[in-house]
Amino acid sequence: MNSEAFDRSAIVAGCRSRLHAGQTTIRERYLGEGDAARLLRERCQLVDEVLCDLWRTLALPASLALVAVGGYGRGELYPASDVDILLLLPQAPDEVLTAQLERAVALFYDIALDIAPSVRTVEECSHTAAADLTIQTALLEARLLAGNRELFQDACKELKGQIDPQAFFEAKRMEQEQRHRRYQDSPYSLEPNCKEAPGGLRDLQTILWIARAAGYGDSWEDLAQHGFITQEEQLQLKRCVGFLQRLRTHLHLHVGRREDRLLFDFQTALAERMGFVPTDTRRASERLMQGYYRTAKEVTQINTILLLNIGAAISPPPEQCPLPINERFQNRHDLLDVVNEDIFDRHPGAMLEAFLLMQKNSDLQGMTACTLRALWHARTRIDADFRRDPENRACFLEILKQPRGVLHELRRMNQFGILGRYLPNFGKIVGQMQHDLFHVYTVDQHSLQVLRNLRRFLADEFAHEYPLCSELISDFPRCWVLYVAALFHDIGKGRGGDHSELGAVDATEFCAEHGIAAEDSQLIVWLVRWHLLMSSVAQKQDIADPDILGTFATMVKDERHLVALYLFTVADIRGTSPKVWNTWKGQLLEQLFRSTCRTLLAGGQVPVRQGLIEERQQEALRLLRYFALPDAVHQRLWKQLDTVYFLRHSAEEIAWHTRALHYRTRVEQPVVKARVNPQGEGLEVLIYTKDQRDLFARLVGFFSRAGYTIVDAKIHTTRHGYALDSFMLLDLSDRGSDRAMISYIEHELKARLNRQSPPEAPGSGRLSRQVRHFPIQPLVTIEPDEKGSHYVLSIAAADRPGLLYMIAMTLAAHCASLHTAKISTLGERVEDTFLISGGGLGEAANRVRLETELLERLKL
């Protein structure tokens, strides 16, 4: 062995020995004292010392700098965390320096640390940070270890000058939203990720990153001094941070590697390590996890309040007097605000009223931090007297009956402790685990997931997921009874005995106290008692046996009970876990549903109604007879159309499309038909062509250049790959005759589609005075559908010329394919929904980039 190899071996062995001894001492001290913050600091100090000594040994040029970044730069090194370092260079290295750097990096790897090194110049740092939010965030926490201080300061100055606090805030907020969606927007999964899931450590770090980027400090004390949090909230945050740090530290030590998921395999050992002991009714692991859920809930509450406060400070909304809603509430910048901070103390019933107002006022985008704080602090005012108050009972029932916002507001009520106070037995299941092979959520979150699935059946943009459920629920009277059943179906869990029977007792009491009609009360209680029936019969019995079908039909009694149970069963199974539902279960349930329909009909029961889709089809056929067309004329076209098409088009539109296309369903040439809007002003245009790239952008550009604004659009793709799109247009130029434009549109648009001309940018236009003086804050969200193969893009923004074209071109630039679109123009506000795929949308970073670009363009 030569001298260089011997020296290298000795250096590596010395570093390893030093690290092992130091980390053993730190670990033993922690296990004795339980001070996680001290462990994180001491591990950083140990690694600092070893790397700095190694840097001196390497004798690299003095012009270089060794920098700690990421969590290591922040001074927090968990037992199994990566050690992120940056070798900072003044300029690109020559061959000699490159060889030295390669030896240095190899040596860093050899000393038994999970090193994550990068080698960059100041200019490269600037470029990569501008293009990658993760790198920008990591560099934000840079800390000099050794080497050229002036170079390090230049890099920090360059990064600081590059950061736009508002853009950084928006990007981190959207990044957090995307991260939360990966965990179903819930901190309550049974095996949560204590770092990345909602309510985990990353939510706390996000706040501090934003604060640092905006110059508000880098600690909770700094935020308190700036007035963003109260002293009480600061103490609450420290407790949360301490608990999560201890939990993650014990997790790393127990597993022996980096692992942030609180898997069942680890929970018992972690509970013992953290001092939780079992009781007569609860395991130690259950007590640990309830402690975690409570902590995560507090973190999400504080995170919500702080994002509101810091966001308002970074980008103050324009001076504007709040708009009164009533004597207790006002609209402040599209947020529900209390007139006085003590309003809930003086009028406790206003707590429920706040959530009802959120549903009734579509312009409200959320609640102010002041309102959320007041709700959280006043929740203890909900007692037996509050629950007996007839006005409060009526208000709670109204929340369930509203056409919009039911799920959002119930989730908000649960997050801030209101729901569990109003329904005490529901409060008992908050954070309660379910130790089985199906449920991946706590009992309360599973119940809200079931409600979420029921609401999703009603949304047009999700009709493609479960078309039969969407069809059935569209005809179901008083859907809110299903929501009540969702809240109570598992409320009896954890009390011993049959949870269905216990829940039925609670539901009976609730219905009586809230004055629910006998017919609806009976259905609610029946659903709670028998919510497992259909799943059990479909999966465990021979549903081809007439006797079994007859028994099941006798139990469900009639059409309404059958439809309600089918909808509830699908929603319930889907609410257990994203992995539990599969096609096989869906087929069994649908087969049982349809067979029972026939059994009920054969038994003299009232038959299941035709449903919305069949009614529309029959009405369309009736309209077609006026044109002396054969009875079977529709079949060639309709067999290429799915449930989503019939849900989104009226009978009159279906008849018009059928007349135009029944004899040319497989044409090579595009079909373009236009007509005067049958319901009023404007033109309706039908386009039917083989699907082609950037079709939507071409159509939007053409209509805009022709002087029309799109007030509604329905984009559809047939089963055999044809685009069947329809647009409702209004004339912006006030030419006075829509009919005169029909021939022009049909001829010119068909010619452009034949040539597959590139999209034409629309002409310039002016914003309306209303939009200029009362700007609307744009909102952009991208949410995966149930199967994760498509994504629902929702955009709310102020209307302006070329808006839809800009959206279309942005989607095209990101290689996102458009499947369906719902365009809605409400005065000066647009609320558009697009079903998209492709464009690498499966990666959260790509979704964030698309969201960010759309948001930036909407602000221009």
From TrEMBL:
> Which residue ranges does the record assign to the ACT domain?
684-764, 792-860
Enzyme Commission numbers on file: 2.7.7.59, 3.1.4.-
Renumbered to this chain, region (Uridylyltransferase) spans: 1-324
Superkingdom of this protein's organism:
Bacteria
> Is-annotated flag, keyword DNA repair?
no
Among Pfam families, the record links this protein to: GlnD_UR_UTase, HD, NTP_transf_2
Q: Return one Gene Ontology term, BP aspect.
A: regulation of nitrogen utilization
Q: State the InterPro entries in the record.
A: ACT-like_dom_sf, ACT_dom, HD/PDEase_dom, HD_domain, NT_sf, PII_UdlTrfase/GS_AdlTrfase, Polymerase_NTP_transf_dom, UTase/UR
Q: What CDD domains does the record tag this protein with?
A: ACT_ACR-UUR-like_2, ACT_UUR-like_1, HDc, NT_GlnE_GlnD_like
Residue limits of the HD domain? 443-565
Q: Which cofactor does it need?
A: Mg(2+)
Keywords for the protein's UniProt record, in alphabetical order: Hydrolase, Magnesium, Multifunctional enzyme, Nucleotidyltransferase, Repeat, Transferase
Specify where the region named Uridylyl-removing lies, as residue ranges.
325-683
Q: How is its activity regulated?
A: Uridylyltransferase (UTase) activity is inhibited by glutamine, while glutamine activates uridylyl-removing (UR) activity.
Q: Which GO terms describe its molecular function?
A: [protein-PII] uridylyltransferase activity; phosphoric diester hydrolase activity
Quote the catalytic activity from the record: [protein-PII]-uridylyl-L-tyrosine + H2O = [protein-PII]-L-tyrosine + UMP + H(+); [protein-PII]-L-tyrosine + UTP = [protein-PII]-uridylyl-L-tyrosine + diphosphate
Q: What family is this?
A: Belongs to the GlnD family.
Q: Which HAMAP family match?
A: PII_uridylyl_transf (MF_00277)
Name the job this protein performs.
Modifies, by uridylylation and deuridylylation, the PII regulatory proteins (GlnB and homologs), in response to the nitrogen status of the cell that GlnD senses through the glutamine level. Under low glutamine levels, catalyzes the conversion of the PII proteins and UTP to PII-UMP and PPi, while under higher glutamine levels, GlnD hydrolyzes PII-UMP to PII and UMP (deuridylylation). Thus, controls uridylylation state and activity of the PII proteins, and plays an important role in the regulation of nitrogen metabolism.
What is stated about domains?
Has four distinct domains: an N-terminal nucleotidyltransferase (NT) domain responsible for UTase activity, a central HD domain that encodes UR activity, and two C-terminal ACT domains that seem to have a role in glutamine sensing.
Listed PANTHER family = BIFUNCTIONAL URIDYLYLTRANSFERASE/URIDYLYL-REMOVING ENZYME, BIFUNCTIONAL URIDYLYLTRANSFERASE_URIDYLYL-REMOVING ENZYME
What's this protein's name?
Answer: Bifunctional uridylyltransferase/uridylyl-removing enzyme
